[in-house]
Amino acid sequence: MIVLVLLTIILGTFIPLQTATNARLQRSVNSALVASFISFVISTILLAFIALGTGELGNFSSINISDIPWWSWTGGLFGAMYVAYITFLFRTIGSVQTIVLPIFGQLVFSLFIDKFGWFDMPQCSISVVHILSVIFVFVGILLIVNQPVSSRFKQSEKVQVDTKTVSQNVSKKNKWLPQISAVLIGVILTLNSVANGRLGVGLSSALNASLISFIAGTLFLGILCLITHTLGQTVLGFQRQDPWWIRLGGVFGAIFVFGCTYLIPHVGVSALSVLTLLGQMALSLVIDKYGVFQADKKTVSVQAILGILIMLGGVVVFNFL
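^ that's the sequence the OP posted. Answer follows.
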């Protein structure tokens, strides 16, 4: 069991890895949309090979497609929107906030789904414990986004930032706008999970559902690239002078989806969500503090770490009590 716990925590680190590498790829292709498209193409190819190797590819012989609700096929669209926007947000608010802020949106929206029984889910009452756990998560988020800003360099060591970089940073006056949007994107992620989960039940295969989701997301992003005349920038993501690892975002995404498919029967949904979250937060701190994958270094204060611990406690209470 200890091995499974460690594997689940490690699996959670693949989310910030995907986001960080996609953000670096964005710098090469000059578009979060194109970077996400490349990532989805790679994820789709890998999942297709996995499905082929396991013998699940296209195994729909005993499935009645008409019994599957139409909205369960939309998971790929929501997943594509989530990955594209998170890739954009990473360079704006950093790795930690990009990971933790959507969690609040996920929890609140999940409460509404449980309360009203949306998406064919069983209707459940909202307990005081659930409300308290959401408050815990909110308090943790406040501590994280309002952590004190301190200089990480001595005056003589400060790096001059060019005009282009400055223009990409959000002004202090409007910094709450991307943070609020990050919370809202958590709703999009929940819609992705609900749709994919229902599709997996309908197809009797989580792997086939994930593959179909990625195919739909890839087509959606490809069409958007065509409409915005950015599809030609895809070739920029494969230039030799770029670091080889910038194309690994799709690999990390595919491994995460396949890992969840494998581990859920062994550790359960609640344990999976909490343990993967622990891995996400831990690696996000490392990425922000040390600028891993050429990310901008950001101050990680004691207050931010305390906020993450409070958030984690709230998520544990939400899932287990």
